[in-house]
């Protein structure tokens, strides 16, 4: 018969104590004592993928790196500007 490897989980007076404890302990040793979590996920944001030329993607990535901003943010900003020009 398999031995239960679960340990008794200590009681914590703050969220910080709990976080610090699990920074140095294996959650798997306490898994059976964890409360069941119930939640709903309502994803409203969509991601749209567009193919772009390799050279353009490379240049965009370089510019974004120089500006210390994510490539996606740079592309969205520039596209938003162009779209607003057309409005």
Walkthrough of the structure:
With 87 residues, the chain is an all-alpha fold. The protein has three helices and no strands. Helix 2 (54-67) packs across helix 3 (71-86). It is elongated. The mean pLDDT is 89.
Which features characterize this protein?
87 residues, mainly alpha, 0% strand
- Helix count? 3
Structural class, by secondary structure, is mainly alpha
Biggest sheet details: none
State the helicity in percent bands.
40-55%
CA radius of gyration is 24 Å
What is this structure's SSE topology?
Blueprint: H1 15-24, H2 54-67, H3 71-86
Helix pairs in contact: 2-3
Give a short summary of the structure:
With 87 residues, the protein is mainly α. It has helices spanning 15-24, 54-67, 71-86. Helix 2 packs across helix 3.
